[in-house]
């Protein structure tokens, strides 16, 4: 392919002609230069059709060349929906257009173009109304909808997340943004300025219009910005979303950066808006700014013979740029009936260019095959209506549109800016900005080049002053002399195909029909027509849609208002959003010991705990049963370091505990422990543990594993509020804890400590401090599992040494580690309650069978007043022990299975397990009071719907006289 | 992400904080009727406006009070309990 559309070398062009790049598009070979985008290289090679539209599969070419050409999306291997208008060309690219069936040229789906009258607005919603046809429509839609093809074998990409900070962030490195950056940095602020383009300068680099001085001024600003020690200029990166307190998501092609700024200046500019006329989507119909980008960035002549449709001075400037670069301008068509001629217009008139005012383009005439423009049909235009009688055709191969702009205000909206419609500039401008958010340039309704520089200086200075750098400069920004946007750039046509939204192929009549059907509010209209819901998110359609709706319902655009702009400003690849999962887990000091012993780990809150220890040739249940048997008949060891471990010290420590737990602790003897239940203000059980008294003013106490963080936090809050003379310390992570349990436990412990372990010196429920295996330790004789045992707490760094010492000392007795499952069964045999499993968010201590611990005669404890009220009411439920008949052979009930009595739900199973020592299924169930009588039977409905009979049994099931864990009386 | 000014640690991201709830004065458990007590325990005022709330900076376990305008989503001020001037 020859570079027949490439211009001679231009100063400031983005391409590097020394580096030629070969690539393929739709199976054909092409060549471009380094610095080209895919679209510019194809256009330079004469390729006009770059893709097909979403709904009607119409051929489409370059439209904006500003990252919004959603009909020019390509697939390159595993890379989906590559934006051809901005993606840099790479050597060896093999590209194909998305959304075609069997290739760009053949695409049999283009027949949809001729069926468009059968695809009315809201077609999609209407198709789903009938249930009968739903499956067929679904198949059709699934085939037709969606862009690109996912390669399911794509390897997982791990993308980094970055974090950054600055005083002032400037979004947009055009003339106003650069001026803002300099003003802010000169006042002392640390500035970051970002721009989505590959190079900075914005419109200052391509909107020349015969005034090279503008470009020189922009370049001079850029030189100062780059040299400024307090400015970081980042290109090829866009601000995708604004979040609370100036937290901005910046996206480049590799990663997302979360930047926290102290002030933000939005200098994002504006999106040029298309005119609406028949066939305004043909390849060769381009925005004026797109034509200028093609020329000045990529040195590509957009067309040979152009008709320029305009409604502002920008259009005349584009015409000048076209002429300078060898494009014959056949005519300039101005929608306005009257206007003040600008300098460019005077110059064009002197060149003898044909000009029409009060005239519109009614229709772009297609070439055969609709792959390009053959001419423009123009007609007189008054009061927003074309006069068909005056129509005449002008041959051309390209149409350039420059009829207006819409502010790139997405981030301003996300920040909560109140916008108002300004009649002078015919666009929405910021009315009330949130604190720390500033706007300048076109997004602020300022279009004149010099005025934009002043506006940037004003905003940059104000932003720096907001952060505390310097004084806000007083800058007066001149008022615009003319509107750059035309209020009605829309021409009706009886045959339609005058597109408003190019993403979704919406035509003018679709809006008229939607409003007729009653969707006459901007939010409803958007959803029914799907306007602005395509990949470009309405950047080129929302403004025209708003103007159309305003005219249809006879309202001012300000009354119609805009839809809500949400993050992201621009589609962000999933690969950049997804990242490494971050779910930290806690491990006890002995974790590696458990792993070496074959532990199968489970999650307990944040912690990893051994569920059981796997043994060769034995299944899970067998392993658990052996662990239980070892504790009942020999000695077992379990890591209980995940328990919450707190200490409270001070003259009012006992009083504090009495206020937060339901039991009494003032009378607890030094060296003794007592079970502790905590309620919330509603009288519901929330936690339990053991309180040990070390001294008159010193207690050590435990909480449940899952409750540890929340209980410590809440106790701290209460202490803050009550201001009692005591302090609370959280030792949860600082201490390791091991429970040594079983009939042989005393003998094992005796081998590694000199403490007097006799029942008299160290009785049941006592706490002692001493050395175990040379390690300073606190030992408690508590019996959660119902055997003689010691809970030994040591500093975390000594946990492994203690574990090793106990395992070694226990080896002559066949000591085995046991896991959480064995412990659960052991405690169930003792009828001990697990808070949160046997109780729920409504269970009182009375219902859970813990009423014995509640001392209602205390002056105060949390939940007391509520329990007084609850106590006066009839009990709703009660936790009971039950067992199944020993002959029960079928499937056993599981936790949460329902108790059914007289056809009604009368309770649920909270715990159940097979007890080897009792040779029966035993469990706990929360049931209605009438079922909570001794020997009462009730039925449990299991998963297969059958009923299993259970019998209420007093707890503990095992060793009711507590002989195993206590010394002989 | 919102920034909260912890009275001890200064401005920190909201992800470091734990929200407890609105600060309410407990009625005298002895003097209050059952209905008054139930009202205190169960009925919270969710109407938008300036609320005084308990918050905790979790890494440092610092409890403090935030006066927050729940209608405007703005933090009016933060201070340690009992140090409201």
From TrEMBL, chain A:
The keyword DNA repair does not apply. GO terms for molecular function: oxidoreductase activity. Keywords: Oxidoreductase. InterPro entries: 2Fe-2S-bd_N (IPR042204), BFD-like_2Fe2S-bd_dom_sf (IPR041854), FAD/NAD-bd_sf (IPR036188), FAD/NAD-binding_dom (IPR023753), GcvT/YgfZ/DmdA (IPR028896), GcvT/YgfZ_C (IPR029043), GcvT_C (IPR013977), GCVT_N (IPR006222). It comes from the Bacteria. Residues 590-858 form the GCVT N-terminal domain. Gene3D superfamilies: 2Fe-2S iron-sulphur cluster binding domain, sarcosine oxidase, alpha subunit, N-terminal domain, BFD-like [2Fe-2S]-binding domain, FAD/NAD(P)-binding domain, Probable tRNA modification gtpase trme, domain 1. Belongs to the GcvT family. PANTHER family: AMINOMETHYLTRANSFERASE, PYRUVATE DEHYDROGENASE PHOSPHATASE REGULATORY SUBUNIT, MITOCHONDRIAL-LIKE. This is FAD-dependent oxidoreductase.
TrEMBL record, chain B:
GO terms for molecular function: sarcosine oxidase activity. One of its GO terms (biological process) is tetrahydrofolate metabolic process. Pfam families: SoxD. Gene3D superfamilies: Folate-binding superfamily. Transmembrane segments: none annotated. This is Sarcosine oxidase subunit delta. It comes from Acidithiobacillus sulfuriphilus.
């Amino acid at each position: 392919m020859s570079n027949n559309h490439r211009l001679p070398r231009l100063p400031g062009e983005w391409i590097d002609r020394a580096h030629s790049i070969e690539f393929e598009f739709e199976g054909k070979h092409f060549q471009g230069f380094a610095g080209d985008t895919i679209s510019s290289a194809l256009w330079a090679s004469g390729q006009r059709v770059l893709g097909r539209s979403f709904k009607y599969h119409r051929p489409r070419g370059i439209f904006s060349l500003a990252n919004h050409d959603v009909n020019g999306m390509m697939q390159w291997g595993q890379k989906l929906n590559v934006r051809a208008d901005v993606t840099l060309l790479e050597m060896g690219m093999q590209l194909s257009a998305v959304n075609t069936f069997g290739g760009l040229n053949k695409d049999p789906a283009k027949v949809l173009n001729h069926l468009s009258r059968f695809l009315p607005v809201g077609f999609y919603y209407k198709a789903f109304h009938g249930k009968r046809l739903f499956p067929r429509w679904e198949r059709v839609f699934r085939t037709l909808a969606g862009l690109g093809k996912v390669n399911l074998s794509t390897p997982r990409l791990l993308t980094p997340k970055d974090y950054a900070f600055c005083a002032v962030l400037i979004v947009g490195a055009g003339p106003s943004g650069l001026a803002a950056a300099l003003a802010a940095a000169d006042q002392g602020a640390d500035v970051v300025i970002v721009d989505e383009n590959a190079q900075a300068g914005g419109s200052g680099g391509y909107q020349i219009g015969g005034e090279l001085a503008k470009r020189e001024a922009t370049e001079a600003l850029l030189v100062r910005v780059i040299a400024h020690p307090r400015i970081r200029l980042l290109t090829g990166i866009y601000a995708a979303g604004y979040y609370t307190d100036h937290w901005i998501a910046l996206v480049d092609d590799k990663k997302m950066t979360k930047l926290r700024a102290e002030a933000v200046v939005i200098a994002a500019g504006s999106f040029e808006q298309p005119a609406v006329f028949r066939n305004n989507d043909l390849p060769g119909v381009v925005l004026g700014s797109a034509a200028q980008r093609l020329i000045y960035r990529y040195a590509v002549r957009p067309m040979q013979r152009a008709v320029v449709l305009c409604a502002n001075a920008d259009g005349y400037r584009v015409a000048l740029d076209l002429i300078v670069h060898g494009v014959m301008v056949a005519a300039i068509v101005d929608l306005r009936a009257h206007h003040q001629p600008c300098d460019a217009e005077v110059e064009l008139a002197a060149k003898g260019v044909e000009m029409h005012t009060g005239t519109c383009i009614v229709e772009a005439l297609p070439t055969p095959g609709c792959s390009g423009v053959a001419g423009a049909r123009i007609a007189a235009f008054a009061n927003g209506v074309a006069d068909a009688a005056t129509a005449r055709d002008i041959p051309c191969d390209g149409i350039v549109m420059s009829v207006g702009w819409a502010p790139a205000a997405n981030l301003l909206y996300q920040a909560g800016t109140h916008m108002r419609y300004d009649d002078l500039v015919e666009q929405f401008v910021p009315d009330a900005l949130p604190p720390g958010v500033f706007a300048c340039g076109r997004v602020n309704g300022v279009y004149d080049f010099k005025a934009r520089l002043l506006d940037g200086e004003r905003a940059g200075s104000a932003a720096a002053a907001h952060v505390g750098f310097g004084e806000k400069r007083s800058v007066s920004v001149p008022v615009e002399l003319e509107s750059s946007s035309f209020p009605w750039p829309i021409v009706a046509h009886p045959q339609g195909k005058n597109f408003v939204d190019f993403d979704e192929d919406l035509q003018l009549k679709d809006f008229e029909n939607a409003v007729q059907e009653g969707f006459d509010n901007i939010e409803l209209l958007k959803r029914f027509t799907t306007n602005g819901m395509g990949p470009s998110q309405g950047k080129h359609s929302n403004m025209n849609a708003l103007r159309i709706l305003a005219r249809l319902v006879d309202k001012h655009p300000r009354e119609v208002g805009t839809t809500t702009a949400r993050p992201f400003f621009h589609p962000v690849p999933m690969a950049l959003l997804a990242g490494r999962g971050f779910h930290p887990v806690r491990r006890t000091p002995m974790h590696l010991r458990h792993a070496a012993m074959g532990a199968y780990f489970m999650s307990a809150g944040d912690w990893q705990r051994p569920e059981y220890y796997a043994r060769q040739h034995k299944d899970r249940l067998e392993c658990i049963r052996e662990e239980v048997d070892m504790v009942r008949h020999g000695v077992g060891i379990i890591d209980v370091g995940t328990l919450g471990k707190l200490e409270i010290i001070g003259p009012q420590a006992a009083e504090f505990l009495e206020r937060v737990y339901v039991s009494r602790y003032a009378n607890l003897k030094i060296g003794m422990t007592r079970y502790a239940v905590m309620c919330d203000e509603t009288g519901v059980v929330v936690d339990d543990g053991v309180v040990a008294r070390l001294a008159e003013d010193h207690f050590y106490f435990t909480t449940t594993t899952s409750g540890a963080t929340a209980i410590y936090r809440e106790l701290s809050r209460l202490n803050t509020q009550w201001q009692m003379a005591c302090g609370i310390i959280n030792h949860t992570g600082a201490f390791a804890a091991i429970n040594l349990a079983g009939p042989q436990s005393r003998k094992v412990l005796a081998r590694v400590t000199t403490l007097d372990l006799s029942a008299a010196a160290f009785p049941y429920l006592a706490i002692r401090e001493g050395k175990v295996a040379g390690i300073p330790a606190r030992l408690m004789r508590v019996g959660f599992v119902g055997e003689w045992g010691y809970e030994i707490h040591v500093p975390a760094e000594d946990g492994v040494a203690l574990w090793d010492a106990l395992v070694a000392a226990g080896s002559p007795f066949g000591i085995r580690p046991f896991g959480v499952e064995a412990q659960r069964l052991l405690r169930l045999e003792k009828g001990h309650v697990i808070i949160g499993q046997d109780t729920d968010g409504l269970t009182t201590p009375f219902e859970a069978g813990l009423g014995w611990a509640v001392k209602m005669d205390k002056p105060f404890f949390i939940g007391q007043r509520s329990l007084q009220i609850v106590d006066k009411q009839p009990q709703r439920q009660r936790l009971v022990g039950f067992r199944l008949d020993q002959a029960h052979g079928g499937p056993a009930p599981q936790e949460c299975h329902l108790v059914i009595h007289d056809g009604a739900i009368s309770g649920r199973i909270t715990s159940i397990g097979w007890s080897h020592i009792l040779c029966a299924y035993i469990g706990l169930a929360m049931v209605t009071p009438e079922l909570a009588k001794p020997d009462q039977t009730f039925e449990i409905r299991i998963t297969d719907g059958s009923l299993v009979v259970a019998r209420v049994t007093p707890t503990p099931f095992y060793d009711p006289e507590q002989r195993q864990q206590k010394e002989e009386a | 992400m919102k920034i909260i000014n912890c009275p001890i640690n200064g401005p920190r991201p909201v992800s470091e904080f734990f929200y407890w709830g609105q600060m309410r004065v407990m009625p005298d458990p002895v003097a209050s009727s059952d209905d008054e007590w139930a009202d205190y325990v169960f009925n919270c005022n969710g109407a938008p406006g300036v609320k005084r709330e308990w918050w905790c900076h979790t890494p440092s376990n610092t409890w403090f009070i935030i006066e927050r305008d729940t209608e405007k989503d703005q933090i009016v001020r933060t201070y340690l309990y009992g140090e409201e001037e």
